Amino acid sequence: MKDTIDLGKKRDDAFITEVEAHSGQKFSTCYQCGNCTAGCPAGFAYDRQVNQIMRGVQLGLRDKVLNSRSIWMCLSCSTCSLRCPNNIDVATVMETLRHMARKEKRVAVPKVEKFWFSFLDTVRAFGRSWEIGTMALYMLRSLRVFTDLDLAPEALKKQKLPFKPHSIPDGGAAAVTRIFKRYRERAKREGVRP
Ligand code: SF4
Ligand code: SF4
After folding, report:
1. CATH number of 13-103
2. pLDDT digits over 109-148, tens only?
3. How far is the CA of 106 from the centre of ligand 2 (A)?
4. Ramachandran area for residue 160 (φ above 0: left; ψ -120 to 50: alpha; else beta)
5. What are the residue boundaries of the structural domains of the chain, listed by start?
6. Percentage of the chain exceeding pLDDT 90
7. Ligand 2 within 6 A of CB of 110
């Protein structure tokens, strides 16, 4: 942890209610055992460990939590959820916080959001993710042209980077595109960032 959570901050009860409603989790039962943090493979990249995020949510520290890098660096691996003795789906809480942060235009690690868009663009276009397409779009968006380029020869050798998108039979790609279209229309109606 690089700094401490300021307990003197005003408690934002609406934040607590929102996280509980959107995640469906009773995080008030968290007693800070630290099991989630002990198993988190992304903790080395966090500014606040996952148990600290949980405590921040309990205390209604909207700014501290939603401005945290940790919610963007989370891998959604669910190890924390499996390790929690109180059966809190911690990974779902992290995901909920990410969506809330994005809705409030607080994206602490823009690179991650750029990667999401690049991945989703290929899924929308081809019905499945396309690795080289995702990489190319991410490089363009982030201007990180040489990112992980040294890994490419090995990945190509193992046929992990096909030059053509994966094909889906029976109009599957078009069906996926329609799902994206419906989602965008709904997001527009509800005034949510797609
Ligand atoms: S889901 Fe996120 S917070 Fe939980 S263990 Fe995995 S990386 Fe860590
Ligand atoms: S494992 Fe569960 S109870 Fe323990 S700190 Fe994490 S969320 Fe709280």
Report:
1. 1.10.1060.10
2. 999 999 999 999 999 988 889 988 999 999 999 888 877 7
3. 25
4. alpha
5. 13-103, 110-190
6. 62
7. no
